[in-house]
């Protein structure tokens, strides 16, 4: 080991009774600078995204009636009835607690009932027409 020490000494310096490698010290500084730069860039990006999110925050939705009332105030007209375009057409919501397969089965059963009803009506009409009723 003593014989190998002089061969590697050009790569090291002795500081305060320690062997130090200047090349490794530079590399450590480079990594620390890179880590600091990435951290600062991340903080700037986070601030930009937070600002955009705050700007894009939407106000709460207004109901159709309040929108109509506001429009009436602006135009001076009194609202009479809600038009068909702003009326609530369907209040039934799918049951999200049931598995999708159960919901689809119920829909298929409903479609089948309607089809059977139509077939039955057609059969009665055909029967009436052939009997001469």
Report on the architecture of this protein.
The protein is mostly helical and 133 residues long. Among the domains are: 13-55; 97-133. It contains 4 helices and 2 strands, in the order αββααα. It has helices at 5-8, 22-56, 64-75, 100-131, and strands at residues 13-15, 18-20. The protein has a two-stranded antiparallel ribbon with strand order 1-2. Strand 1 (13-15) and strand 2 (18-20) form a beta hairpin. The longest helix has 35 residues, at 22-56. The chain is elongated and about 125 Å long. The model has no long low-confidence stretch (mean pLDDT 77).
Order of helices and strands: HEEHHH
For the report, how would you describe the main beta sheet?
2 strands, antiparallel
Into which percentage range does the β-strand content fall?
under 5%
- Structural class label: mainly alpha
Specify the overall morphology. elongated
> N-to-C terminal Cα separation, in Å?
119 Å
Helix content: 55-70%
Figure out the total of helices: 4
Uncertain residue segments: none
User: Gyration radius, to the nearest Å?
Assistant: 40 Å
How many strand units? 2
- Whole-number mean pLDDT: 77
Strand order of the largest sheet: 1-2
Question: TL;DR?
Answer:
The chain is mainly alpha-helical and 133 residues long.
